[in-house]
Amino acid sequence: MGMVTQKTRGELIRNLFPELPDYRFRQTEEAVFHAGWKSWNDVSNLPGEARAKLAAEVPWTSWTAADLHRSAAGDTFKTILGLPDGNRIETVLMKNSRGQWTVCVSSQVGCAMKCAFCATGTMGLLRNLTSDEIVDQVRYWLDFVASPEGPGSRISNIVFMGMGEPLANYENVKESIRTVLKRTDIGLTRITVSTSGMLPQLEALLLDQDWPDVRLAVSLHSADAKTRAQIMPSSYEGFLERLKNWALKYLAAKGGGRRHLTFEHIMLGNVNDSPEHAAKLADFAKSIGDVRVNLIPYNRTDAGFAVTPDARIRAFMDVLERNGITVTRRKSQGDDIAAACGQLVVRKS
Ligand code: SAH
Ligand code: SF4
Q1: Residue 189 Cα, ligand 1 centroid: separation in angstroms?
Q2: CA of 118 to the centre of ligand 1 (A)
Q3: Is 19 an annotated catalytic residue?
Q4: Is 90 a catalytic residue?
Q5: What is the pLDDT of residues 216-261, one digit of tens each?
Q6: For a 10 Å CB count at each end of the chain, is N or C smaller?
Q7: Nearest to 343 by CA among 101, 115, 87
């Protein structure tokens, strides 16, 4: 992509203080998560000289502008973050069923996968986000929730369901998760990475000792190969078989206890939402094991798919449930501020 690799916050700090002892370095990492601290000048446990040097040389956060939107219902917030290179990304805060907050983060500017129903896909891939840029979306909402004008309660969950394909930015996503686990009280089972199904990366993470065992959700969207290929151009011959083999290995290695696997299934009117499609999905899921299905109502985009009526979603769910499959239905929120899944799209300013 011919882009300059950006230095991470940590690299900038190491360059600035080549002799920095480890405990001091750790203090700088902790400082950016400290509630209420807004700049390096606030970091009272560092010597004044170091604070001044940091304030002059190292950005406290990776975004330079933040444009906050609130849904009428007050259960969803969306912020467009401006990055120094002029790119913009979106991050969302949603009230969840426990009355706490879920942060939805972007992992790339745009996305190369071009799924037919997704607004982000129409942008193409502009670039990967750095781990700091991912982490700083979480920091943005941690600050917001804790601020006097914030909505109260706490952030309990993080989902990688914003702009981009997280596994196409594997190393930075991994690093960002490791940082969040280290610096916040958000635990492994409260973080979900959603992927369009990048099998080389899914296979790699099974062998990767450093990969944090967060929850995984695979955007299946159809267990019928032909239908899937129509709506997801990243699909290819043999995909479903390979996904199944991977899923069996995944569950054997990580399954049990609170671990399961989720298949996401968007409901596109008369495309993948018939009882026959549900039966095929049920068979596929049952051939694997402890797989759950998350049905996602289609949020309107320029692609112009039809929204599946409620009764038809119900019927689809019934087929799955009769086959003993745990199925959840995502509630759509924030569509008045275009903050719903698949509606995230911003052009360069
Ligand atoms: N790229 C990853 C994660 C980001 S998309 C992935 O595709 O899984 C997060 C979820 O939103 C995916 O399940 C995706 O299929 C879904 N989505 C995309 N466009 C949508 C739309 N218009 N309406 C509802 N869900 C959509
Ligand atoms: Fe990319 Fe996910 Fe959108 Fe597909 S649904 S284009 S993988 S962000």
Answers
A1: 20
A2: 6
A3: no
A4: yes
A5: 999 999 999 999 999 999 999 999 999 999 999 999 998 777 778 9
A6: N
A7: 115
